[in-house]
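Re: duplicated header lines in exported structure tokens

Our pipeline writes sequence and tokens for each protein into one text file. With two proteins the header for the second block appears twice in some exports. Here is an export where it did not happen, for reference. First protein block:
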Amino acid sequence: MDLVINGKPVSVDVDPRVSLLDLLRERLDLPGTKKGCNQGACGACTVLVDGERILSCLGLAVQYEGRSVTTVEGLAEDGSLHRLQQAFIDHDGFQCGYCTPGQICSAIGMAAEARRGLPSFVTADLDGDPVPLSGEEVRERMSGNLCRCGAYNGIVAAITETFAEDVR
């Protein structure tokens, strides 16, 4: 099977029953993507596939053949953290850090959805323009990513600071 992981082509033989999460963690040594519930309920395993957020525990690796997968390890460029990674540090958007990779990947995908004008349950204006990422909008859109430590205020602050100007 051939796919692109964090910008690099990868060829791997994989049992068709292996999840994308297990391929990333166990075969490709990318431990940033976390196994939380392994049932799609917590968001710890969120990665980007062709720029869209997915729960890697719910998909079989073979489903993503020929696709581009980005994990938290692939977000930094030229030795510098992604601006959202830095914002999580600046706003204390984590405590134990277990959910952080999934939160960050999910937020990047979520911001792209808002730029495309995809509404959420709380979106007031449904005209298809980019959706401003207010705190309420971010909380709704990120509700599938759980943090047992309760670092939500820092997470929301990091996301809104990073992407507020992107979607106006």
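Second protein block, exported in the same file:
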Amino acid sequence: MRTEDLIKALDADARNKAMPLRSAWWMATAVAAVIAAVVFWFTIGPRSDIMIAMHTMRFLSKFVFTIVLAGTAFALIHALSTPGASTGKAATWMAAAPLLVLVAVVLELFAVPEAQWGTRLVGSNMMICMGFIPLIGIGPLAIFLWMLRYGAPTRPVLAGAVAGLLAGGLAATFYAAHCVDDSPLFVATWYTVAIIILTALGALGGRLFVRW
């Protein structure tokens, strides 16, 4: 069978699912968000001064980064799970969250004395960050890997890695409500490390479980 015929066959199979693929992804993401919320609330919960923190730009900026990451990863993983779909535009948008973090880091370096850079980068909760973002995100990652089997990705390892980015963005959004380290230097370093852990697990899961 020619590659073009195979892609058409996979696309037809994906379209014949009981639920349209986009609707299925939205439902899966909603379920994943509920799972992440439950783990978050029954483990660490929001920070005690969250009502005060909500009035600060550094605190709110964390959610901008994580939500943009989750949103762009959602668009890309939907494209990757649809045979024959173009992924170029969605892949380009994946640069949005890193660029936003980069801009925030540059502004932080200008706003904060150099003597404080190291302290802000290390923060006070880096181990908690690297532990709880993967913990909150592992359930959503499992949901997203299962959803990839509902579709028909032709690049399962890449699709699994993007599933990890989506799970990481979702988990980091919840964790940001607990984290007292609001500096972009901290976010750019330790949030990234934690999300990379989920990305690596997603790539491995894609290799092992997402096959057709």
